[in-house]
Amino acid sequence: MKKVVVFGAGRIAAPCVRHMLKDPDLQVVVVDKVIENAQKIIANHPGGEAVSLDLQDADNLIDEADLVVSLLPRFLDLQVINKCIEHKTSLVFPNFLSPEIKDLDQKAKEAGITVLGEIGLDPGIDHMSAVKVIDEIKEKGGAVKKFSSWCGGLPAPDAANEPVRYKFSWSPEEAIEACTCPARFQKQGKEINISGSELMKHYSFKNVAGCGWFEEYPNSDAIFYIDIYGIPEVDTIYRGTFRYPGWCETIACLYEVGMFDTRVEDVGNMTYKEYICKRIGLSSNENIARALAEYLGVREYSVVIKNIEWLGFFNNEPLPFEQAAAKEILSDLLLKKLSYGKGERDLVVMVHEFDVLQPGGKAGRITSTLVEYGEPDGDSAMARTTGLPVAIAAKIIVRGKYGKPGVQIPVDRELYRPVLKELEELGIYLKDTYVEL
Questions:
Q1: pLDDT tens-digit profile of 149-181?
Q2: What residues have CB less than 8 Å from 340, skipping those under 6 apart?
Q3: Active site residues
């Protein structure tokens, strides 16, 4: 029997752990500081074990494991990977590879272990489904001239029942962090860079068949994947994130107010209204809506002012902190206002577009689309589409069916094919359509 140690029992852990527990040859140990979280996921399954342990005290557990799965926040990835390298234990995790993680490639190879990252939804299913189509295009002698990919985790339309139409189906801290991550993409051969401070200002609209219109904004570094996907001929490559209309401008204005500031300050005995007045230099809070509108250069009756008011920044309620950074105050308030209620479900939308040049010069467009809804009072679509690829990849690696050493992402055919096949059996797959251009 193989032992898989899972760190983290948060929002995406349940589908991942339950899927691995279906394998009678696996023992799954779930580690979380709050043992009740781990116990709830294990649900007394004979193949599972719940452990309360801090990461720095987990060396023995990592050493005994045949594989480690990390579902911890991104800022802990480096610590987990270093421990896995030290104990020569392979690792699977869903988060993006940071430059520091990429630099550990040689150490992982020397340790003879696989460090597989970017194996969730986005990143993860996006990579695997894109490379699958690209490989099929190339096998037919075609070329990819343009590749664009979008993904969004959103409330389903029936649950998008508040003004900003967004709710957290994954880590609130990381969702907010993603609003200010620099982006890089290529358009008609020209490299374009967007700073984190300007990201939310660079949105446009896109219609998805069967879902309607979304805002989309640039996501991360798309150019990095030209070599990874094996498409040096591409002249345009882009990655984007979907949100409902109104989100980007609201976040951009909150950024302008300084609500993404990470400097800790004394905020004891302050109300939300007093705090926002301080951020914009307003001595009296009698005309806060008008003053904020003037500060931001928008109309007092604009949607963004109404959204900021609805979020609670004009309230006379005291801040729940003695000391805090603006970003911490924002995260706390958003989580309180933008959480899923009983019976509400989420929605995951992913779209790829490939502009293809076929042999003989015929041009066409392949569109791949995934639309996945969560289960009311059950697993969210985000948890399933992020956790299940992790679980499937973990099973493949621990069984010895994939073991390429070093820091990897899931673009090797021997890995992405079985992962996508099992996901399709679970009802998660992208539908392809083709039109001539």
A1: 999 999 999 999 999 999 987 667 778 888 999
A2: 155, 159, 167, 168, 169, 346, 380
A3: 122
Listed by start position, the domains of the chain span 125-244+342-379+429-436, 258-337
Structure tokens at 93: 């995790």
Alpha helices in 222-345 (DSSP H): 225-229, 247-257, 272-280, 288-296, 303-308, 326-337
Residue range 125-244+342-379+429-436 in CATH 3.40.50.1980: no
CB 301 within 8 A of CB 289: no
Q: What is the largest CA-CA distance in the chain?
A: 72
Reduced to 3 states (helix: H, G, I; strand: E, B; else coil), residue 45 is: coil
Query: Taking the CA of residue 194 as centre, how many other CA atoms within 13 Å lie in the half-sphere pointing to its CB?
Result: 25
Q: Give the residue from 218, 176, 213 showing the smallest Cα distance to 311.
A: 176
- Whether the ω angle into residue 123 lies within 30 degrees of 0, i.e. cis, is yes
Q: For residues 252 and 166, give the distance between their C-alpha atoms in angstroms, rounded to a whole number.
A: 15
Task: Find the helix or strand (DSSP H, E) in which 91 lies.
Answer: strand 91-92
16-70 pLDDT per residue, tens:
999 999 999 999 999 999 999 999 999 999 999 999 988 888 999 999 999 999 9
Q: What is the Cα–Cα distance from 82 to 101, expressed in whole angstroms?
A: 9
238: β partners: 148
The 3-class SS string of 288-311 reads HHHHHHHHHCCCCCCHHHHHHHHH
pTM tops 0.85, yes or no: yes
Provide the Cα torsion 374, 92, 96, 79; round to 10°: 120
Tell which residue, 331, 252, 329, has the closest CA to residue 73: 331
CA torsion angle for 424, 427, 429, 435 (degrees, to 10)?
110
